[in-house]
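User: Run a structure prediction on this.
Assistant: Running it now.
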Amino acid sequence: MPDKFDLYREALVVEANTVWPEDYRDLDAGEKRRIEEALHADPKSCVQLDYLRLHTGFCRQITVTADDVQRIRG
């Protein structure tokens, strides 16, 4: 179950990770980078957001979904 957006954890994010499903393996690298940047710029709107505990803070991990891609592409 994904986490909910959390301002406290966001303040302690020291790393960001994006998980791409196999459906998007052929997507252009530039398009992937653009989508990743948009998702991490607005994590509150992401469908699947997880905060992974690290020794120094949190890693924000976003698993890309079709809804996210559609929202970003407009």
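The mean pLDDT is 95.
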